[in-house]
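Researcher: Sequence recovery benchmark, item below. Answer with residues only.
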């Protein structure tokens, strides 16, 4: 089971990108800062993201670098 994580310095304004990827059988969303450090992560359902992102994450599930970028701050 994948447990949610929140950094002690988490602030939504520091998040510059969001990725999804599988940890075991759990699809997980990662919010990262400009140093690519995970600020927050938590399990989600595939239906919570666009089908193209969910299917790409599923296809990459058993690879070493399986995260799929779903959002970038502009």
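Model:
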């Amino acid at each position: 089971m994948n447990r949610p994580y929140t950094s002690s310095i988490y602030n939504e304004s520091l998040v510059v990108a969001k990725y999804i990827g599988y940890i075991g059988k759990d699809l997980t969303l990662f919010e990262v800062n400009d140093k690519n450090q995970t600020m927050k992560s938590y399990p989600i359902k595939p239906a919570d993201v666009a089908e193209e992102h969910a299917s790409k994450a599923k296809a990459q599930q058993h690879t070493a670098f399986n995260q799929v970028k779903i959002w970038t701050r502009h």
